[in-house]
Amino acid sequence: MSGVLAIAEHRRGELRDVSDELIGAGRELADDLGEELHVAVISGQVEEFARTLSREGVDVVHTVTDGAEFNHDVYTQVTDALAAELDPTVVLLPNSVNGLDYGPAVAARLDRPLVTDVIDAEIDGDTLTATREMYGSKVETTVEVDAERTVVMIRGGEWPGASASGDAEVREAEIEIDESAVHTTVTGFEEVGGGDVDIGDAEVLVSVGRGIEEEENIELVEELADALDATLSASRPIVDSGWLPKNRQVGQSGKTVTPEVYIAIGISGAVQHVAGMKGAETIVAINTDPDAPIFDIADYGIVDDLFDVVPALIGEFEES
Ligand code: FAD
């Protein structure tokens, strides 16, 4: 094999959206090479995951049973062993918290160049050209690496997911995990404040910024989120003030989100905030300042006081 090996990601019994996107990106790169796309799923309910990952465009799904959740040592060993066995041109990983945890270790073990946070990639002949953002998304850089053997980590939300199911061959990989080299054990998950909410998975986000003025006013925006069946997120000052938990923060030092609709309320549109939400399909901004930078990227803008606009919107949506 000399195609693409993508490593799927799951958490608490569910495949994450980026797994689908890895298939989308992996198929594109495999097509550039004219080679196969293999996907591997490690730990958890691998048989069930393998059925879901058997999408159109996937040639083989490899399953590796070991533990329930992500474990750095296990993922590193397994990816290393699969890559040694299959010798793929590209090892494709998600640029997620887990991916960033073990991707560099995989690249080091395989002695391959590593390109992180990739938003676009293609292979032409011997060269893999990847686009990645830098300096808080102020600039895009183009990186060229020798395509012969690379590890590429893709940013979530940048590739369309594979949708149609296919009939990939499912193979149970015969990999002996060296337990003496497994130095960590996942003992459980503890949610930080904010419960199970993952703003990265939300289809509609209502996001609140410093324009809300006071903590008790957050309730107003929460009401709008409820009326829209949306999830509440925030800019950094709201989180820094302790008004909402950290897992609600959108931006460079928070989460990157790609919802269908993002409603920015009293958010100026600082570059560090925009870095985390500019991938939203439709952006609506409510701000009293017509020169606020958020309007440069908004599809719909309302230049008005949020304390007038938000109650009016709640009234509209509660009626409908
Ligand atoms: P402001 O910039 O103060 O904007 C408030 C907006 O509300 C203004 O545009 C104002 O016109 C409007 N407004 C005021 N009153 C009303 C009203 N009544 N009705 C309607 N509009 C009103 N920020 C993030 O968000 N996420 C990050 O991850 C992040 N990471 C950072 C990392 C670094 C290294 C640094 C240096 C900064 C980071 N920041 C981040 C902070 C960022 O630079 C901005 O300070 C922040 O995004 C501003 O938040 P804001 O838009 O809520 O507040």
How would you describe this structure in keywords?
320 residues, 5-stranded parallel beta sheet, elongated
Major sheet = 9 strands, mixed
Taken in chain order, the helices and strands follow as EEEHEHEHEHEEEEEEHEHEHEHEH
Helicity level, as a percent range? Answer: 25-40%
| Unreliable sequence segments | none
Coarse morphology: elongated
Averaging pLDDT over every residue, what do you get?
Answer: 93
Number of helices in the DSSP assignment? 9
Q: Which structural class do you get from the secondary structure elements?
A: alpha/beta
Radius of gyration: 21 Å
What percent strand?
Answer: 25-35%
Distance between the termini: 55 Å
**Count of individual beta strands:** 16
**Strand order, largest beta sheet:** 9-8-7-10-6-1-4-5-11
**Ligand kinds:** flavin-adenine dinucleotide
GO molecular function: electron transfer activity; flavin adenine dinucleotide binding
Keywords: FAD, Flavoprotein
GO biological process, one term: fatty acid beta-oxidation using acyl-CoA dehydrogenase
Organism: Halalkalicoccus jeotgali (strain DSM 18796 / CECT 7217 / JCM 14584 / KCTC 4019 / B3)
Give structural notes.
- InterPro entries: DHS-like_NAD/FAD-binding_dom, ETF_a/b_N, ETF_a/FixB, ETF_alpha_N, ETF_asu_C, Rossmann-like_a/b/a_fold.
- Keywords: FAD, Flavoprotein.
- This is Electron transfer flavoprotein alpha subunit.
- The protein contains 9 helices and 16 strands.
- The strands form 3 sheets. It has a 9-stranded mixed β-sheet.
- The protein is α/β, with parallel strands linked by helices and 320 residues long.
- 29% of the residues lie in helices and 26% in strands.
- It has helices at 17-33, 46-53, 72-86, 97-110, 218-227, 236-240, 271-277, 294-297, 306-319; strands at residues 4-7, 10-11, 14-15, 37-42, 60-64, 90-94, 114-124, 127-134, 139-146, 150-154, 169-172, 204-208, 231-234, 261-265, 282-287, 300-303.
- The longest helix has 17 residues, at 17-33.
- Residues 209-211, 235-237, 249-254, 266-268, 270, 272-273, 276, 286-289, 292, 305-307 line the site of flavin-adenine dinucleotide.
